[in-house]
Amino acid sequence: MNHTDTCHTIARRAPHIQPRIAVVLGSGWGGLTEHLTDTVQMAYTDLPGFPQPGVAGHSATLWLGRLGAQAVAVMSGRQHGYESGAVDGMAAPLHILQQLGCHTLVQTNAAGSVRADMPPQSLMLLTDHLNLPQRSPLVGATGSERFVNMVDAYDPALRQHAQRVAQAQGMTLFEGVYAWFLGPQFETPAEIRMAQRLGADAVGMSTVPETLLARHAGLRVLALSFITNFGAGMSAEPLSHAHTLSQAQSGSAQASHLLAHIIATLDDGLDTP
C-alpha cells in the first residue's frame, strides 16, 4: 500500500518536526505526552493507514514533538490482534513513521507479572519475548528480508542506556522475558504456570507483532512494561480491564517521567543505527 499521502499530511501539519524516534504508548504510559514540547496532534481518523483502536485507554492520537533535543512521533494507541484477529494492524503506521525518518521504536505496554518478586507498580525492560500464539504480521511478505533475525531484537545498547537512566533516578527497572498471549481473555492459572515454566517474566496482549514489524523494517527496538497485576492464580485479586487501567493510571506519572528521560538523553552514539 502506498502511504505517500499520509506522509505528506504529517509533514505538512508538522513541518518543524522530522521525527527520529517512534513511540507506542500502552496503558499506563499516556503521561509521556505531558513531557512533550513543540507539539502537534493529529487524530488517527485524519491519517489513512492508521488504525482505530477499539479498547479503552487508547486515544488514537499521533503526537509530533520533542523530548529534550529528540524529535519524536508518539502514537497514543495501538491496534491489538484480539480486536480483529489480524496481527498486522500496526504495519502501516510503523512504515509511515519510518518513511518520515524514524530509525528507533520505543514500545510500552501494561503487563501481568509471573514473578513473585516483581509486584504490581513495577517497571520491566523487555530483554526477549515468547510469541505464544505463533502469529506473525510478516505472513505474506516476500523476499529474503522476511526471515528476520530475532537475536537481540530488544537492542542491548538501548537497554543499557535505559538502565543507566533508571539508576541515576534511583528507580528499579526489572528486566525479563515478555510472553505474548493473543487475548482478549486473561490467561488461566494453568497458562500462567506454563509461561513460568517456559521462562517468561511477564505476560501481555501486545508488543510482539510491532517488534516483528520493526525488526523487519530495520528499526531498533526498546520496550518497557508497566506491571499492573500478578498473573492469574498468583493472588486473590480478580482480574479485569478496569483493574488494569486503574493500576496503570496510578503509576503513570512515575513511568512516564522515566520514559521521557530515557528518550531525551539518547546520545548520538545510541540514536543512530
Strands ordered across the widest β-sheet? 5-8-7-6-9
Strand content: 15-25%
The beta-strand count equals: 9
The tally of structural domains comes to 1
The parts where pLDDT drops under 50 for at least 5 residues are none
Structure annotation, total helices: 8
Order of helices and strands: HEEEEHHEEHEHEHEHH
Q: Which homologous superfamily in CATH is the superfamily?
A: Nucleoside phosphorylase domain
Protein model, in words:
The protein has one domain (18-138, 146-264): Rossmann fold, CATH 3.40.50. 29% of the residues lie in helices and 24% in strands. It has helices at residues 4-13, 81-84, 91-99, 156-168, 189-198, 208-217, 241-250, 252-264, and strands spanning 21-25, 37-43, 61-67, 70-76, 104-113, 123-131, 174-180, 202-204, 220-230. Strands 5-8-7-6-9 form a 5-stranded mixed β-barrel. α3 runs parallel beside α6 and α4 crosses α8 (252-264). It is globular and about 50 Å long.
Walk me through the topology.
Elements: H1 4-13, E1 21-25, E2 37-43, E3 61-67, E4 70-76, H2 81-84, H3 91-99, E5 104-113, E6 123-131, H4 156-168, E7 174-180, H5 189-198, E8 202-204, H6 208-217, E9 220-230, H7 241-250, H8 252-264
Parallel strand pairs: 1-4, 1-5, 5-9, 6-7, 7-8
Antiparallel strand pairs: 2-3, 3-4, 5-8, 6-9
List descriptors.
about 25% strand, Rossmann fold, single chain, alpha/beta, about 270 residues, about 30% helix, globular, 5-stranded mixed barrel
In short:
The protein has 273 residues and is an alpha/beta fold. The chain has helices at residues 4-13, 81-84, 91-99, 156-168, 189-198, 208-217, 241-250, 252-264, and strands at 21-25, 37-43, 61-67, 70-76, 104-113, 123-131, 174-180, 202-204, 220-230.
